[in-house]
Amino acid sequence: MIVGHGIDLQEIEPIRKAYEKNPRFARRILTEKEFMVFSSLKGKRQIEFLAGRWSAKEAFSKACGTGIGKLSFQDLEVLNNDKGAPCFTKSPFSGRTFISISHSGNLVQASVILEEVHDC
Fold first, then answer.
1. In CATH, 2-115 is 3.90.470.20
2. Which tens digits make up the pLDDT trace of 10-46?
3. Is 8 within any annotated ligand binding site?
4. How far is CA 104 from the centre of its chain?
5. 75 is in an annotated binding site
6. Please, which of 41, 51, 97, 113 could form a disulfide with 108 given CB 3.0 to 4.6 Å?
7. Active-site residue numbers?
8. What is the pLDDT confidence band of residue 9, given thresholds at 50, 70 and 90?
9. Arithmetic mean of pLDDT, 57-70
10. Nearest to 33 by CA among 82, 72, 88
11. Averaged over 60-88, what is the pLDDT?
12. Number of CB atoms found within 10 A of residue 78's CB
């Protein structure tokens, strides 16, 4: 049964500016494993990655109904699976989590669905 759906739309430029103003911004948003991926990227792709993880974590918190504040960015981790698709590898939710991240121009959008799984 679906228990939550969250969507976040974020302009990439403010994320870029926040990172350029204070590079520690990335460490506040990203877990250690996410930061390793971020560090391996360059230029536009690096900032898109950071903005995508920001948006994904915001969408997750909206799906939970709490928003960021009750959850921290460090409570959530989004890495890619063996097919390259993003997936939550760390979260406080015990059910199934579905995520989609899309980039277009100066925008990134993330959608998260939370599903409780019940055995019949």
1. yes
2. 999 999 999 999 999 999 999 999 999 999 999 999 9
3. yes
4. 16
5. no
6. 51
7. 62, 103
8. very high
9. 90
10. 88
11. 93
12. 27
